[in-house]
Design a protein that fits this description.
This protein has two helices and eleven strands, in the order ββββββααβββββ. It is mainly β. The strands form three sheets. A five-stranded antiparallel sheet has the order 2-1-7-8-11. It has a four-stranded antiparallel sheet with strand order 3-6-10-9, with no helix packed on it. The relative contact order is 0.22.
């Protein structure tokens, strides 16, 4: 073993979300990055010691990204392609797009990237606005997808 040192995990305080080459922005919280596989149990007659477990479809939960409000309109530029004039301008067709979520190192380089297949926005929630509040203005984006691949 030339190098027995364990690599320290990256600080996970900053994520970058892109759609193709369009950088939507840096986010401070990402949830829902996961996958589950349906399991069907098959009971075999005469076999009482166990049941056969057959793997089924993969399920990809929606991903929720949160960040403080920014002055960039990249998120809305992408979001508006899926409804209203943006959708009508594309002849009411949605073009499948690849998105990516990258954990960024302190030097600003991607450490690990999840490439999302056929990503689409399903919900945007703006900040809670109250004159009496001292909370940060946080926006939330929820996207659906058809799976992901991982690169380092």
């Amino acid at each position: 073993m030339a190098n027995a040192r364990t690599i320290d995990p990256p600080f996970v305080g900053k994520f970058v979300f892109k759609i193709g080459a369009l950088q939507i922005g840096a986010f401070t919280e990402v949830t829902g990055l996961g996958v589950s596989i349906d399991v069907e149990e098959l009971m075999e007659g005469g076999q009482n010691a166990y049941t056969h477990k057959l793997l089924g479809r993969m399920r990809w939960p929606n991903i929720v990204l949160k960040r403080g409000l920014t002055d960039s309109n990249a998120l809305f530029t992408w979001l508006l392609q899926f409804s209203g004039d943006g959708f009508n301008g594309a002849q009411n067709k949605i073009k499948p797009e690849t998105g990516s979520i990258s954990v960024v190192t302190p030097k600003g380089e991607p450490f690990r990237t999840w490439s999302l297949i056929d990503v689409k926005p399903v919900k945007w929630t703006g900040p809670r606005l109250a004159a009496s509040s001292r909370d940060l203005a946080i926006e939330e984006l929820e996207v659906c997808h058809s799976g992901f691949t991982v690169t380092t």
